[in-house]
Protein: Radial spoke head protein
Organism: Echinococcus granulosus
Amino acid sequence: MPRSATAMSQILKRLVTPPPIKGRNHTEAQTELYLEELSEVIETDTICCQTDDFLDRPPTPLFVPAKTGVDVATEIPSGDLFDFDLEVKPILEVLVGKLMEQALLEVCEEEELAEIRKQQLEFEEIRDADLMEMQRLAERERRHREEKERRIAQHLEYQAKQKELVEKIAARTFARVYLEPLVPNVYEDLYIQGYFYDVVEHGVAETFIPWLLDAVCEELDVEAKCRALLDSMICEATNEVNEAYARLDACELEEGVVGEEKEGDKVNELESNEEMKSKGFHGSENKGEGSKPENEDARNQSIEP
């Protein structure tokens, strides 16, 4: 139990917020899951105060340094230091002399400036005349140069046209010489290669003759099939007759001599059988002959268009 109590106290110490720093306070904050309404109302009141208007700043007084020495005074009577007329005369002479000298220098300078201005005007007139003459000469030189260039360009253009004319004449002559035999040769080659043909002849050769050959081949195939069928029928009939004769020969050998009546009856029967077979054979031949004209008529009708 004591151990558990100490453990709980340590846990509670860990969960408690540490103390605030010096000069600060903790503020309680709600950290629970559900918010709680704060019902405590703090009473407040509004007050105000009035201050006087600011007065203007008074002017700053002049700075007067403090006296550090001792004041003394000296009295000088009139005429003790200097004589005004005597002392002022050389000063006035110097001032008047300098003034006259300065005036003379200014007059000389003005005359010199006037002379310089006059010479400058004369120089400008001469320079303007020279510039005008130079411009006139430059303009004349420019006109001469442009005229020269224009004439050179005209001459070059004339030479180019002459060269082009000669080339055109040569090309036309060569083309005429080259094309005169070319056109007949081309037409002849095209005619030989089959590009020029008669429409009727081409239609007969390309359409009618192949169709005619196909129709003839079909008729020949039909005729060959009919002949093969007829040959097979003849072979079957001859085989049956031979078998009948073989059976008769076998019967005669086994029975021996038979009465004349029986022989006559058998002969009659055989003759009747032969007649029937021969009739059937002739009928098949007639059928084949009858189909042949029909085939020929159909072929003639197919050829007539």
Summary: DSSP finds five helices and no strands in the chain. The helical segments are 2-15, 84-179, 182-193, 199-255, 260-303. The radius of gyration is 79 Å. The chain has a mean pLDDT of 77.
